[in-house]
Structures are given as C-alpha cells and as structure tokens.
Amino acid sequence: MAGRKRGRKPKSDPLSPAADIPTSTSPHIDDDVVFSVSNVELIDPPPSTSRPRRGRPRKILKLPENSNPENGKTLKKATPRVINKPNGVGVASLEGTTVNNADVARVVPAMDAVVKVFCVHTEPNYSLPWQRKRQYSSSSSGFVIKGRRVLTNAHSVEHYTQVKLKKRGSDTKYVATVLAIGTECDIALLTVDDDEFWEGVSAVEFGDLPALQDAVTVVGYPIGGDTISVTSGVVSRIEILSYVHGSTELLGLQIDAAINSGNSGGPAFNDKGNCVGIAFQSLKHEDVENIGYVIPTPVIMHFIQDYEKNGAYTGFPILGIEWQKMENPDLRLSMGMKPDQKGVRIRRIDPTAPESMLLMPSDVLLSFDGVDIANDGTVPFRHGERIGFSYLVSQKYSGDSAAVKVLRRNSEILNFKIKLATQMRLVPAHNKGRPPSYYIIAGFVFTTVSVPYLRSEYGKDYEYEAPVKLLDKLLHEFRQSPDEQIVVVSQVLVADINIGYEEIVNTQVLAFNGKPVKNLKSLARMVENCNDEFLKLDLEYQQVVVLQTETAKSATSDILTTHCIPSAMSEDLRM
C-alpha cells in the first residue's frame, strides 16, 4: 500500500472535463441592459478541501429559521447554452443562488413540467441575402402549460430549423412544433405531437404578479451539468424594462440572482409553486452583479390570450407618439395648464399610426383610459409604486380602443377614442424570422436596412460604426407610409459593366429615373419594366449611377452565374 503524501490536497476543477463552449458575439446594447453573449465566466468556483483549523474554534453565527446556512456557487452567462455555434448571435438567460430545502420542497411538484429545449438554428446572411449561415445548436429551458403546450423564450428558437424537447429524467428527445413566436415579448409557444411526451406531465399553474422582496425560485437547465438546476432570489424591482431581443419596453421583474447560460425560458416560481415569470435576460456591467430579469405573468398571459384569440401572435400595441416630460413649471404655464393639471407634451406623432388623425404635436396628454398621467409620464401602479404609462397601453391588444384626454394649445380639453395598433419602424428592429429581401441588376445588390442588417455589416458596435444618416433614420425617423423602406446599394459585384462604381457601399437609393423609390419591391418593378435607354439611380450624397438598360439586363445573368447566385431577386419580390 502506497504511503500517504503530505501537503495540501490539489484543488479540483468543478467543470472537469472542460466543456468546449465557443465564444459568440452580441448586438450592442445600452449600458442599462446588456444582452451578454460573452464567454462563460465562473463567478465563484467551489472551494477546495482544507485542513482542520487549529486553535480556538470559530464562533458559530446563529441564523434565522428561514435562512439558508450554505451559500451556493453560481455561473454567470446570459445566453442559452451554445453547443456548437461558429459565428452567430447569442441570447439571454437567468440564474441565481441556491435555495433552502423548504423552498425546494414547495416547488418539487412543478419541476417535472420543466423541459430542456434543444434547437438547431440557421440564421440568414444579411450581407449575402441569397445565403444562410452555417447552422449551430443551442440548449435552453422551457415548461409545460395547459393545452399540451410548452413555453420558452423567443430567442431560444430564433431562426430554428429543428426543435426538440427532453423531459426531466428522460433519455428521449421529442420533436416539437413551433406554434407562435412573440419577438417583442421574447416568448415562444411550442407543442409536441407525440402522446408519449405528455404522459406523467402536469401543467404549470400561473400565479399573481409578486410583490417586492417576494422569494422566487428559477428552475432550468443551465451550464455546469445536464440535470435540472434550482436557484433562487427575491424580487428587487418591478418596472418597465427594455426587452433586448425585441427592442421593446414592457413590464418586467428584476431579481437579485446570478446568471447562468442555458436558463433562458425556464420558469420562476413563487413560494406556493406557481409560475410568476420566465427567465430571459440579465444585466452585465462592471459596477453591478447578480441582476437578472424575468418576464412577468401579465406579459405571459397577454401573449397566450393573443394567440388563443387570433390563432397567431399579433403583438403588443403602442401609442405612436414621442412625448416630453412637463416637470418644468414655466413649460406647464406656457402650455396653459392649471396648477392641478398634470400630463406629458406630445412631441411627434407617427404618421402611419391611427392616432395621427386625432392628436396633434404640442397636445398635452392628460390621461389614458381614465388614468391620470403625471408630469413625469408615470401612473399609479400598486400601493406606494408608480410605473410608466406605456404599461397601460401594453395591457391592450392590437385593434382595441382606448379613451385619451388631451389639453390643446388654447386650453381646450378634448376627449378622443383612439384605435391602438402595433408600430412598424422605418428601420425594423427584427425581421420576425423572415429571410432578407434583395434585388440584383448589373452587379448592384439592393436590399433593405434593418437592425440585423446593420449588425451584419458593422458588427455589435453598429451604433458607432454605421453611417450617420442611417443611424439617424434608425433612431428618429417615422415611416411616412405603411410600406416605406430604406433601400440601399449593399455592394457592387464587380463586372465590366459597373467599372467605376465598385466603391459604392451601403448608400441609400433615393430615386430611379426621376421617380422616388418607396421600397425595394417598387424599385425592382420599375427596373424590370423600364424601356428607357438608360437606368439612372439617384443615390444619397448626390451620387448618380447610369447604366445602359439592355446591357445591364443582359449582363445580370452572367454575374449571377459567376457568383453562384440562384436568382436575381428574393421570393417575396416575385409575388
């Protein structure tokens, strides 16, 4: 028998053998909410085994009855667990600290409803819109609800090719069908046709919106192992949050939990075992730690009821205005407001929104659906709490009506009944899973501008690297008509016919043969039907492109063959 070696015991690697988890990139987000997709980072690795302490024994701190005597160790990451991803964009997840045995016992009945979601993604290539990127795989979490359905995050199944679900304690993966994807609220609805999947599974029950300091337990399948994980935190804030994936602002819960990759889509339970939210994103910043975000039940129920009512997800309506706070007393006086009147000043109105027919710039919005709006744009929420009035709008459904009261410039109070609708931005934040549109003539590749396109062209820092005029349209401009698009020359595929035009990149097309370009489909139609001798394109910065019509059309076929492009236009432009 070998003798025992003296000295310290070697530290053990908590993740041995090491998993191969590739680095992925992320879209640039404001510092307030970071949609982190960086490498996996151990927050606090498990301690190594130490020798007994000599001398006087330590004093044992007496803990309250409900406290947990052992502090858990967590991993930090805000994307679904990426299994194999070459160069894609990651997504968000949520995690926390370990819970005490009493809390686990209360949640156990619903834990069998939590499933692991496996997804194969194939993202569009926005820079080469006739192609798709290399597929990659990811894993995240989900849970069963009534009606033989499963909820998870929208970003967990974005650009999906195949989705599979695995139950707790099972070795079988079941192919799932995606019923609806709510990009704005970051929720997706799935189902499984195989009856075997539903055997022995009970649906999760939803609870009410929790109060501050209420305990929440997050269940899912984060990185660090293959079995289910139970972690916890408390509700530390309830307010309107920026939903990173959908680029919208909706009600959200902030909990003081650390973040693990792979928890995306997992349920958050209260102490009664009822689901009060879905884990979906985190805040990563050098000055903060243990901040995670949960989609609350009002948003979840809005998504489910929207699907059940319309047979599809129609979205969250928005009041198509930009407004200004009225906290300055001189500003209120100049607008003719009385001392007891409060509200916000309407700066601009979306021309395509239904309310543009009734409201005017410089109107003071006093109330929405009978609820008075304060000078800072908030409304009463619960006892001792206030929240942005956009919460009232988000409670409505697309097509619903709402009563608004405004103060016009001549101190006249007007009451209107407006119809609410979803907003379409001039530069869309997402394409809702659709492939990008494109049109090619004489080597000129035309496409439309969207946030995914800017990210593809300029990387995660597109808000700093993209042309200023495109960013101005992204941040400040409204559509003037429902079908308006920003059409750009994405690139020029070099050929003899386009000599001298090779350096034109991401420049907006303003007109074709003297006619304004409204959208990509109108440009393609005008070019295809053109019988003039020349094709003349008026671009931004006073640039002009002129090509002979017959030569340009005949050269297009050879250029497509040279670059292995299957078609001169995307399928949606053929309709």
From TrEMBL:
<dbReference type="InterPro" id="IPR041517">
    <property type="entry name" value="DEGP_PDZ"/>
</dbReference>
<protein>
    <submittedName>
        <fullName>Protease Do-like 9</fullName>
    </submittedName>
</protein>
<dbReference type="Pfam" id="PF17815">
    <property type="entry name" value="PDZ_3"/>
</dbReference>
<dbReference type="InterPro" id="IPR036034">
    <property type="entry name" value="PDZ_sf"/>
</dbReference>
<dbReference type="InterPro" id="IPR043504">
    <property type="entry name" value="Peptidase_S1_PA_chymotrypsin"/>
</dbReference>
<keyword id="KW-0720">Serine protease</keyword>
<feature type="domain" description="Protease Do-like PDZ">
    <location>
        <begin position="427"/>
        <end position="572"/>
    </location>
</feature>
<dbReference type="GO" id="GO:0006508">
    <property type="term" value="P:proteolysis"/>
</dbReference>
<dbReference type="Pfam" id="PF13365">
    <property type="entry name" value="Trypsin_2"/>
</dbReference>
<dbReference type="InterPro" id="IPR001940">
    <property type="entry name" value="Peptidase_S1C"/>
</dbReference>
<dbReference type="InterPro" id="IPR046449">
    <property type="entry name" value="DEGP_PDZ_sf"/>
</dbReference>
<comment type="similarity">
    <text>Belongs to the peptidase S1C family.</text>
</comment>
<keyword id="KW-0378">Hydrolase</keyword>
<dbReference type="InterPro" id="IPR009003">
    <property type="entry name" value="Peptidase_S1_PA"/>
</dbReference>
<keyword id="KW-0645">Protease</keyword>
<feature type="region of interest" description="Disordered">
    <location>
        <begin position="1"/>
        <end position="84"/>
    </location>
</feature>
<feature type="compositionally biased region" description="Basic residues">
    <location>
        <begin position="51"/>
        <end position="61"/>
    </location>
</feature>
<dbReference type="GO" id="GO:0004252">
    <property type="term" value="F:serine-type endopeptidase activity"/>
</dbReference>
